[in-house]
């Protein structure tokens, strides 16, 4: 009768880095829009969220930021709010386009 050595398999719990969710860009129409959420402390001591929105399509390069969002907001919520704000012209957007510099061959 042999003694069985019991091997214990420890589960390695690794904090999984959440991949940013991808949405359809309202400007170029490609599913290349990434929304990154961050929680921050707003003046007054309450937690708010801010989102940086960017389109990964180099020909589009949409960039936008939204702040003062409720902490319960998820990427989807931000996305719909962003579309809404964009429609009403309530959000500032910029474009970081590559290869579209003026006067260069
Ligand atoms: Zn785009």
What is this structure, in a nutshell?
This protein is of the alpha+beta class.
Strand residues, percent: 25-35%
Order of the strands making up the biggest sheet: 1-2-3-4-5
Measured between the Cα atoms of the first and last residue, the distance is 82 Å
Mean pLDDT: 87
Overall number of structural domains: 1
State the major sheet: 5 strands, antiparallel
Work out the radius of gyration.
Answer: 21 Å
DSSP summary, beta strand count: 5
Percent helix range = 10-25%
Number of helices: 1
Instruction: Give the SSE order as H and E letters.
Output: EEEEHE
What compounds are bound to the protein?
zinc ion
Structural class by SSE content: alpha+beta
Spatial shape: extended
Poorly predicted runs? none
């Amino acid at each position: 009768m042999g003694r069985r050595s019991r091997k214990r398999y420890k589960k390695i719990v690794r904090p999984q880095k959440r991949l940013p969710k991808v949405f359809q860009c309202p400007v170029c129409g490609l599913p290349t829009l990434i929304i990154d959420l961050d929680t921050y402390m707003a003046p007054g001591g309450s937690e708010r969220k801010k989102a940086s929105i960017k389109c990964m399509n180099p020909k589009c390069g949409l960039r936008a930021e939204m702040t003062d969002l409720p902490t319960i907001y998820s990427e989807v919520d931000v996305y719909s709010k962003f579309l809404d704000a964009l429609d009403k012209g309530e959000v500032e957007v910029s474009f970081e386009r590559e290869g579209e510099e003026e006067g260069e061959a």
